[in-house]
From TrEMBL:
The lineage of its organism: Eukaryota, Metazoa, Chordata, Craniata, Vertebrata. Keywords: Cell cycle, Cytoplasm, Disulfide bond, Glycoprotein, Immunoglobulin domain, Membrane, Signal, Transmembrane, Transmembrane helix. GO terms for cellular component: cytoplasm; endomembrane system. It is a single-pass type I membrane protein. Residues 147-235, 240-329 form the Ig-like domain. SMART domains: IG (SM00409), IGc2 (SM00408). This is HEPACAM family member 2. It comes from Xyrichtys novacula (Pearly razorfish).
Amino acid sequence: MEATGGTVLNVCSVLLFFFLTEVSSEYIHIPTLVHHGIEGKSLLLSVETHFSMDEVEIQGTWSHTRPSGTRATLVTFTKESSITDMMYRNHLLFREPNVSLLIRKLNPDDEGDYTLDLNIEFHNKTGLVIKEKRTVHVSVDVPVSSPVIEKSPSSAVIEDKANVTLSCSVERGTRVVFQWLRDNIALGPNDRYHFSQDNSTLFISPVRKQDKGMYRCVASNPVSPDRHSRGVELNVYYGPYNLEVDSVQSLRIGEVFTINPGELVFFECRADSNPPNSYVWISTSRNSTQVITEGPRLEVRFYRLAQAEEYLCRAFNNVTQKQDEARITLVVASFGPGKEKHIQDSGSVSPLAAITVCSLFVIGCMLLFFLRRTCHPKRVLMSIYNRPLSEQKRPHRSGHEDATEDFGIYEFVSIPGKMESAQASCRSLARLESVQDMHTTIYDVIRHVPETPSHSLLK
């Protein structure tokens, strides 16, 4: 029986504990448990009570624990009265009856944790004391002033040969967080970008072309929005890079440029560089080198066909002491009037291939024309028919005797009733292998033609 009674008592105690915990959580509420105070300004540690002061008796304290661990009781209070520690009498104000605490003119010593211990006893539940405890963290900061950047060295630097240090500082501000931007893009550490522990210093080693731009520093703390510094430009000397020769007046295939004879053509030599490059054009033909002109533009006019010339464009950066070269070959070829000029890339059609295709097309058209004219079934040899019949039906000559007399232009005309013979003879013409064969075939055709005036056979 005693064991059963003890078990029931334990269960009741646990239920009472959870009940009181649930009820007590509704009695007070502190909206903010972390406060970022501004030095010299007041800060209210607000407490909301969810009960009527007429129905309870209260007793409590506010205490302060500094970051060093030192603890001090600030205020002891009841519903009717409060006692403030004399050390803080002019610095604190206890806000009765809602037990809030006001700190006047914050200073760095006010940082730390503020703890409220509160005992509540309801009049209708005498002997039942409810305990409430809350802790609020307070930090005290100075607003951040506008940051300023210092750059070392202050002048422009040469890529791969110099290092740059950028330092950001503020006149006022506590717990300042620094961030770096280049052309409004946030920067982070990498193999060449190194930051100090508080991020206030950026060290670039070595400097490269991509580091040029406008640098800004952003400073902030818990009581200040982002404050941006003025931009500081980093000027980097680099290059030359990506040297290229181009011309809009010539036909280009790789490094070979083709121009019309006698035409004035301009070539431009360009490269990415800071400061701008100096350019020199050099002729390298006939196993000799000769400086032609200085500057990025070359003017060329050739009159000789199929004359290849080689040129070299040399770009030099006087500051970085670096240079680059590009070689081109000029070929003179006639394109004819009205040609279109195109800059050819590596995937363009070769001019030789275009000429070959055109030639094959013309040859095909000529073959088609002669085959159709020769093998038309409705024509007979008109020129031979116009000769006297005695000449047309003469026997074959041996060899090539007077063969030149038989050459000429032959025309066929339609002869009624003789279509089959003409077609057969036409097919024989298509298989001629010699002049004698041609004579035999022509004679076979003519002997089927009646002696009719020639003008009646013309179409």
